[in-house]
Amino acid sequence: MKLTLKEIIEATEAKVLRAEGVNGKFALSTDTRTIKKGEIYLPLKGENFDGEEFIDKAIGAGAIGFFISEQGAVSGEQKISAKLILQVKDTLTAYLELARFCKRKIAPKVVAITGSSGKTTTKEMAFCVACEKFKTHKSELNFNNEVGLCKTILSMPENTQVLIVEMGMRGLGEIELLSKYAEPDISIITNVGTAHIGRLGSVENIAKAKCEIVKHQKKNGILIAHDDKSIKDELIHLFTYSPIHLKHFSLKDTKIVEHKIGYSKFVYKNYQYELNVEGDYNIQNSLAAIEMGLVLGMSEEEIFKGLKKYSPIEKRWEVKEIKGYKIINDSYNANPESMKASIETFLNLYQNPRLMVLGDMGELGKNEVEYHRQIGDFLIQKIAKTTDVGIITVGKLAGEINLKLKENGISSINFKDNLQTSRYILDNVKIGTTIMLKASRAMKFEEIINEVNRK
After folding, report:
1. DSSP string, 51-103
2. Residues 184-229: pLDDT tens digits?
3. Is CATH 3.40.1390.10 correct for 3-90?
4. pTM higher than 0.70, yes or no?
5. Helix or strand or coil: residue 155?
6. Which of 11, 80, 398, 426 is the most buried (most CB within 10 A)?
7. What kind and span of H or E run contains 217?
8. Which of the listed CATH numbers 3.40.1190.10, 3.40.50.920, 3.30.2350.10, 3.40.50.300 matches domain 107-308?
9. Which among 110, 90, 102 is positioned nearest to 10, based on CA atoms?
């Protein structure tokens, strides 16, 4: 979205250090690699970079001007070559304020989504649903932090009716900040689990962080939340001063009609829905999208049509035929809850020959070894000692799963890296096997797929 200089100053309260021959509307860019002629450069700062060091490059690429923080310095050459120089206290805050200004100007219904797992899938399902009736815009990829929120809003078409944004977090206070600038009409909490417990210390703190999403929600807004005790406990406190209406959803409120590979059919609130993807956890995610559609005034038929159009995105239960193997790549992320859900779906729906490749789960804190050994316990409960389901673990922490299985007489193999794993598959796993890959993103399990595909 382009803004006039007057609007930019109004949004950011910027001090004008230079403005000569500046007319019309302007787009913003934070990246000198993609900046276009006539855009305004807004330099951001991170732990390992300072965008203000690239102001000259931005001007050289055709930027009409730039922002600078109070701590920054403007050279004489920059004053000569730039038509516009704006000074703000903090460039990230200015970026957020510009995004909020644009959001308020276009005034879509804002749907904000967070959760320990399933938030991206829920976002994609919600997008498919909303598109059946409204001009809808969403966060792309994993644009779920402050910068991603700004990019999402500022790329929003001016005819947008529904804006769907994903909100991630690294610690307490971060979702509250995102909520402050997104100002949601509808908030969704998919669940609360052990993802990020290494940073926050307890499930209770995770629930507290996720529930921050309502702190800047519109008055009389709607919160759609998984029927989770930790969420309820935190909301009891929050709702003493927050006028938000609450809707719960739970898999317990559904009737599963049919489950098979690549397909689910279920009844929810007396209406039958279908998904072109398997897994109870995907049905649970879809319930939040259904509730969102109902809040937006959509009919069950419109919601049904939207859900039918959903398909998994990259690395989320992505099924491919590679070199004679059926490979299910579910390695976008992993925590104990999502690991168990993937294992259960795989064991329930896929037939032998089959192989599970399980990698490290990240960000689990001081109890990370115990969480991995619990996955071993879960597997022991789910598979008999006589089964011919293959199990490979990859990485030091996943090796704890392997040890737990061996302690209980279940055969499995542990490898230290992806190359060893892919070589074993090529040399020992027979063609026709269905292989599930599940791990945190940091394990880079796509390397296994690439190596298998290379041979």
Report:
1. GGGGHHHHHHTT-SEEEEETT----HHHHHH-SEEEEES-HHHHHHHHHHHHH
2. 999 999 998 877 677 777 888 888 889 899 989 998 899 999 998 8
3. yes
4. yes
5. coil
6. 398
7. none
8. 3.40.1190.10
9. 102
Q: How far is CA 325 from the centre of its chain?
A: 29
pLDDT confidence bin for 111, thresholds 50/70/90: very high
What is the sign, positive or negative, of the torsion defined by CA atoms of 407, 408, 412, 414?
negative
pLDDT digits (tens, 9 = 90+) for 263-318: 999 999 999 999 999 999 999 999 999 999 999 999 999 999 999 999 988 778 89
Look up residue 220 and give its DSSP letter: T
pLDDT, average across residues 415-441: 97
Q: pLDDT tens digit string along 343-370?
A: 999 999 999 999 999 999 998 989 999 9
Length of the chain: 455
> Which residue pairs from 165-168 have beta carbons closer than 8 angstroms and sit at least 24 positions apart in sequence?
165/110, 165/111, 165/112, 165/113, 165/123, 165/138, 165/139, 166/113, 166/114, 166/119, 166/120, 166/123, 166/138, 166/139, 166/142, 167/112, 167/113, 167/114, 167/119, 167/213, 168/114, 168/119, 168/142, 168/144
Q: Which of 71, 168, 176 is nearest to 120 (CA)?
A: 168
Residue range(s) of every CATH 3.90.190.20 domain in the chain: 318-454
pLDDT at 242 over 70: no
**Cα of 102 vs its chain's centroid, Å:** 23
